[in-house]
Amino acid sequence: GKKLQWLRRMCVVSDSCSWPTILLLILMILLIVLGLLRLSEPNQTQILNESILQKLQGWMDGFRLSESSPFINSTAATDVEKSQQYDSKSMALFEEEMDTSPMVSSLLSTLANYSNLPTGSKEHEEAENNEEGPRPSKKPLGTLMGVYLPCIQNIFGVILFLRMTWMVGIGGVFGSFIIVFMCCSTTMLTAISMSAIATNGVVPAGGSYYMISRSLGPEFGGAVGICFYLGTTFAGAMYILGCIEILLIYIFPQAAIFKLEGLEGAEAEIALLNNMRVYGTIVLSLMALVVFVGVKYVNKLALVFLACVIFSILAVYAGVINTAFEPPTFPVCLLGNRTLMSKGYDVCAKVIEIDNETVTTKLWSSFCDSDSLNATCDEYFTNNNVTEIQGIPGVTSGILAENLFGYYLEKGMFLEKRGLLSNVDPDSPTTNSNRYVLADITSFFTLLVGIYFPSVTGIMAGSNRSGDLRDAQKSIPIGTIAAITTTSTVYMSCVILFGACIEGVVLRDKFGEGVNGNLVIGTLAWPSPWVIVFGSFFSTCGAGLQSLTGAPRLLQAISRDGIIPFLRVFGHGKANGEPTWALLLTASICEIGIIIASLDSVAPILSMFFLMCYMFVNLACALQTLLRTPNWRPRFKFYHWALSFLGMSLCLSLMFICSWYYAIVAMGIATCIYKYIEFCGAEKEWGDGIRGISLSAARFALMRLEEGPPHTKNWRPQILVLMSMDATQNVEQPRLLSLTNQLKAGKGLTIVGTTVQGTFLSNYTDAQRADQSLRKLMETEKVKGFSQVVISSNLRDGTSHLIQVGGLGGLKHNTVMVSWPCNWKQPEYYQQFRNFIEVVRETTLASLALLVPKNISSYPSNGERFTEGHIDVWWIVHDGGMLMLLPFLLRQHKVWRKCKMRIFTVAQMDDNSIQMKKDLIMFLYHLRLDAVVEVVEMLDNDISAYTYEKTLVMEQRSQILKQMHLTKNEMEREVQLIHNKNASTPTSPTSPTPPAEPPAGGAAAWTDSKGADKGRTLSPAAPAEAGKDLFSMRPNQVDLRRMHTAVRLNDVITKKSKEAKLVLLNMPGPPKNRVGDENYMEFLEVLTEGLNRVLLVRGGGREVITIYS
């Protein structure tokens, strides 16, 4: 009885109530009670069989973490099972592959038993209930319960009940219909793209985050995942604010802590916002506590909240039908054409007749200084009449024509009725504005788009439950598209029906101040406004709980993926997996929306994040379709890349239509997260489309590079670094990569190569170990490039293969860097310097530049800094400008940045050194290079005794080395003949071309001149005679002149560049034949003697620097 009296009192307030209203309210209360009773029932959750879990644990973990195929290297079966699988004689042919390739029968049975549990509330609920013992398994959900109804519940929300009528009144039926059509089209196109992605294989929980990250890579996935998380979090704030707005304005206004009575304008607005902040924080704390205690309570009440939404919408349609026969009575009082606040009058009249006596009303007192008829009144009140119009004229009244077009208002403007004239003096000041219904915000078309769009979000609810569905690949497309079609139909019909049934001034009255403080959409509902009030209140509460449930789990999924390092702490939670830390962060971010306190300000914020998420869903589908990757085989066939691009364009357009500055902020947040993930190096290989784009772009760029060589202006050293490895496959000279990094600064191509001696079958493991060592060193030295390891029967051939086949297409190296063989004079390193000279010959033949750093161990590391010093360039011969370009590139790096550049050139007797210096200064000016220029004169002095002696010693040593090397080879050949079998490869393999017999006196070491004693060899049978010949020989004149040049140049260079940080000089060409290679090494040794750091440079035969722009 007391409950019925309470309902009766509510009906008196609403002025329209009957027994159907009471019965409907009782039904809603019973639904809530039934939902609460469900909380005590044992949970019927799906329990996965323990044996299946044990069998699938190995490859399922790998599938979840790395998305690798369970078909290869599956650990599902034990060794005993494998042996049983291949026990049949018909399968004996494949028994050698049993460790890597399971039988088809066992594979299919494993896949049939696969169950994909979502990373959502389901497993947490199971973890709580497993303590009570096993329960009967829960049947998989179908399309209706698993996708359609959850999407309906998530799409319909607070905007429909609190802002839809206001949007129609402000934007007009045409404008509002365009907004609804644009937003619904965006979500429909996104649903088509999402259906294609969701049906392209199994989609675990995570919704759009999972689909985007696996389609576009970890960078895009992490950025959009965070945006989706922020959107869901701010959606929770919006639902809580809507809940508080319904409570404080329509249900229990007396609960306001900051009273609004007597306040006007900004003061009243501030008081309302403060009430929203206080109650919003309280409600947020209670909801977070409910989610923390147990998410199963939220899930069990979901059906109740959905029933409230459906009943409320049905009540609206019933009210529309009722207006055609019996329009409800909701009078609106107008003064002139201005809408009056209902609390400012008791009767819509200035005076009334009581017992043949004219009596003033409350309205008169509001505008006049006294109750008497002779009182001084407001000018506008005096000049205009009071009229009363019907707020709900009905669907047959023809009011639709008046509401077709928009009526945008500035903040503080009066709500005026169209077509009704008023007598107002434009020069008189406005008074008593608090007696009228005023616009609380400035409205415009783009604002309406931003406020409305959250009402069409929630289309991911079905894909988030894919693990619970009986047939996800069938249910997700059908259920999602059907839900969007249903909600779009409801929204579009509501726009038309609201415009056809409700008076324009009532539509524009956001808080129902002109209709006794009723919810405007509630005035249309049948049988009572309270159906809508309570239905919208419970639906907003449920939506807020769902947001606070889903957002922490989304953040937990992102954290557990490990792509954003600083979020890893939020991947932890309670023992049953509840994301406690993520819930705390979500509540904190949600509090930011509560502090904003305005529903109209929070809605555009979450619109940005959802639009960005939907944009990337469409982009993912379009890219996968255009790239035509072999794994792109969605079961949903009604998609096209053009539709995806249209949806993406609509999302991007709506972002800037809603709010261009919010769009820039949202895109900035996503960009920062993207670059952060890229900087941290998310090592995830998810088979994403961005990798496919990279491959397609790389192929296109390589094909373009094949069209011709690069222009001189675009030339930069693309370096092949030849590294040497020790016996344990560790790099011997790591400073080579330090110099490469300083020279490249991360630009251009760098290939780091090495050779492993042996055969591919026997030494593949060594090659992998060498490749790992190279990659690790490249990462340490921050060298961006590629590593390449070649296995060859001898080191010489392997190095030659690297020089020949390194790179791909037009992206090939144009420069080779190899370290100087330090111990070349020792007999055991004979083959090492022969290999070095072969590298010099091959680079010369291939027109490749060559860089040979000497004393590489003394070169600076990347962490060192030179605060002063010089880089000296000794420009002796012109080789295309490499000597000019290299110091410029080195000085771009912070190690060499403070070093100054000096250029030395050598003048002969006939040269004008003064003119040479002027010309060189002008040349450097045109090259835009800053350097000190100096011309060194070298006089034609006589050959010194030191030079003569050094040449003689060099040639004698060369002959002795040849004698020793030939003797060793002949002895090995005799052993092979005696044993008559194939011997193993020698420890120091010879050059591929057998050495020619040396001429007497060492002649023809660098030239083709023939000595008189050519053809005489030093056989092992006559070592004594050979020794006598060596000590009786005289130096060759050609070698003598060259030694003289090397000694003179070294003397000049040592005097000028002894203290230089680095000396660059031209590297002489190799000998044309292979006789006397030792002499070539000796000349280079003499040329660089006494210098700390020397970089020998040999050009590639083309210009690499130009004076032209």
UniProtKB/TrEMBL annotation:
It is found in: Cell membrane. GO terms for molecular function: potassium:chloride symporter activity. GO terms for cellular component: plasma membrane; synapse. It comes from the Eukaryota. Signal peptide: none annotated. The chain crosses the membrane at residues 21-39, 141-162, 174-197, 209-230, 237-258, 278-295, 302-325, 436-460, 481-507, 581-599, 605-626, 638-663. Residues 734-847, 866-952, 1042-1109 form the SLC12A transporter C-terminal domain. Residues 989-998 have a biased composition (Pro residues). Residues 118-137, 982-1029 are annotated as: Disordered. It catalyses: K(+)(in) + chloride(in) = K(+)(out) + chloride(out). Residues 147-323, 437-720 form the Amino acid permease/ SLC12A domain. Keywords: Cell membrane, Chloride, Glycoprotein, Ion transport, Membrane, Phosphoprotein, Potassium, Potassium transport, Symport, Transmembrane, Transmembrane helix, Transport. One of its GO terms (biological process) is cell volume homeostasis. Belongs to the SLC12A transporter family. K/Cl co-transporter subfamily. This is Solute carrier family 12 member 5b. It comes from Oryzias sinensis (Chinese medaka).
